[in-house]
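Field: COMPLEX_INPUT
Field: COMPONENT_COUNT = two
Field: RESIDUE_TOTAL = 228
Field: MODE = joint
Values follow.
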Amino acid sequence: MRPLFHPALEDIRPEAILYALSDPERAAIYVRLAGAACGNTCSALAELGDRIIPKSSLSNHFKVLRESGLIVSERQGVEMRNQTRCTELDERFPGLIKAILSAYGQIPGEPKTD
Amino acid sequence: MRPLFHPALEDIRPEAILYALSDPERAAIYVRLAGAACGNTCSALAELGDRIIPKSSLSNHFKVLRESGLIVSERQGVEMRNQTRCTELDERFPGLIKAILSAYGQIPGEPKTD
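Field: COMPLEX_OUTPUT
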């Protein structure tokens, strides 16, 4: 099984972050992960609101999030556990993730503003 | 000649902003426009650093920036004058544009941080 690619913090590029979060479905998945308080993990995100995301799309979304540097994935048996890298990302790009989630009206733990 | 499309402020979507600025060349063009202090216009941006951007690419970059809501373009004779919508955008998505430009290390008027 191929190892999962995660960029080092210093190799994370703003363009990759912006591209990854420019897809509203992917942004919603990221929000769900971020809502787990940057610590818990979540491997079953196939339902977003009332939509069901096909497993292949979901897998691709996680790949884009992971390779852009937004999340860390870890295989655990047949499952994949994912968590955000928000703390270290906020050191590298202060305020960026929060401003993006706020623009989507989706800061975890805060009421929807839009 | 077809009128230029500009979305109304309330129709501007975060995903369009992120997508438009996820291209470093387009982001650099935006930075140049924003560097004109949100007021001046600039129609000749074919040189970015030591690169020359072909006219067709440049025209497409401006179209993406305009239709995402990042800039306003105005035909003046054979020229197109462009300026950013940063003040109104900052009201709609507080901090977003500044955080993105900061991530690129390119806030106009501030030293490069990266």
